[in-house]
Amino acid sequence: VLVVVGGDTNGSSEQALMASVFPAVQNLLLAATALGLGSVLTTLATYRADDVRRIVGFPPHVMPLAVVPIGHPERVLGPPRRAPLAEKVSREHFGVAWTTA
Ligand SMILES: Cc1cc2nc3c(=O)[nH]c(=O)nc-3n(C[C@H](O)[C@H](O)[C@H](O)COP(=O)(O)O)c2cc1C
What we know:
This protein is α+β, with helices and mostly antiparallel strands. The chain is built from 3 helices and 3 strands, in the order βαβαβα. The chain has a 3-stranded antiparallel sheet with strand order 1-3-2. Flavin mononucleotide binds next to loops.
């Protein structure tokens, strides 16, 4: 299944559109994982917005934001690889490493 995610610009400003939509996309990814399905977030479709609009019939006020393929994985999936939080999180100022001590 390919889930094509659109953001309705009538319901949200363009600046807030992604923040309104991507939490739902994350819930979709989590739900797929909980069901044992594989899924992946892709946003490349935003670069081909006109093609996506034509294929799925989005009107001009609906912006293509993501395509999420979901399917039965060929093998049992392990936990996703993640960089340590300390490499990604700053404390007070960007670039000041977060430490728990
Ligand atoms: C905002 C965002 C956009 C992404 N867009 C694409 C994409 O267009 N194509 C793609 O192959 N992966 C894309 N990725 C990467 C995949 O979603 C995923 O993070 C990557 O395949 C690693 O999988 P894992 O997190 O399950 O380890 C994107 C990730 C994020 C966070």
